[in-house]
Amino acid sequence: xxxxxxxIASVMIGIAGLGVAAxxxxxxxxxxxxPAYGPVPSEYVKDWRTIVPAGRLEGRPDAPVTxxxxxxxxxxxxxxxxxxxxxxMKKFPSELNVVVVHFPLPSHPHAPFAARAVECxxxxxxxxxxxxxxxxxxxxxxxxxxxxxxKGAGIKDTVAFNGCMSDTTMRPLIAAGLxxxxxxxxxxxxxxxxxxxxxxxxxxxxxxxxxxxxxLAKRKPYKxxxxxxxxxxxxx
Length: 236
What we know:
CATH topology of the largest domain: Glutaredoxin
Strand order of the largest sheet: 1-6-5-3-4-2
Number of domains: 2
CATH class of the largest domain: Alpha Beta
CATH architecture of the largest domain: 3-Layer(aba) Sandwich
Distance between the termini: 94 Å
Number of helices: 8
CATH superfamily of the largest domain: Glutaredoxin
Structural class: alpha+beta
Oligomer: single chain
């Protein structure tokens, strides 16, 4: 009888051990899905202009349409949106200005250095050329030296650029961008504001062009878009 009980106990322990092993394997190779979050609603942000000093402006300050972008240069979604933005900038070269706000995410190890590269390039008036080149060469992040990106953006003095990159002091606009992102509850990149209209989901190139066209024609691009947002020139 005692031997039978010992055998049963051994079998039960073995089954339990298999169960634990199966659970560990399932957890290792089939991790639980991430928690579900509801869609972020689009909304108008009244004090959006306070973000502008924390970013780099490309375009005319008196342009009637201003797009503010919180961006991470290693983010693939930011790279995709940059293509849409390029389409809009070509279509509205004098009516649209863009404010690029640094918001490197902790999950992207090269993003803080890419943001620094843009700020170092600004001393040579190549900030936006560097943004373009980094997005177009995003797959090379971590595989090429930063001087390679500088040359690709048209920077000739790579010695000065490398000296700037070696300075570990937080650049003011990077710190300002991170602060603004926290203040305005930026949850991810890219986060886009068009004349203060904060998109829950980044717009496609066709939607962005349509929305800008509506604003220029004084038509509401979205139901809750306020009429006061039709005039968004930064120089006023």
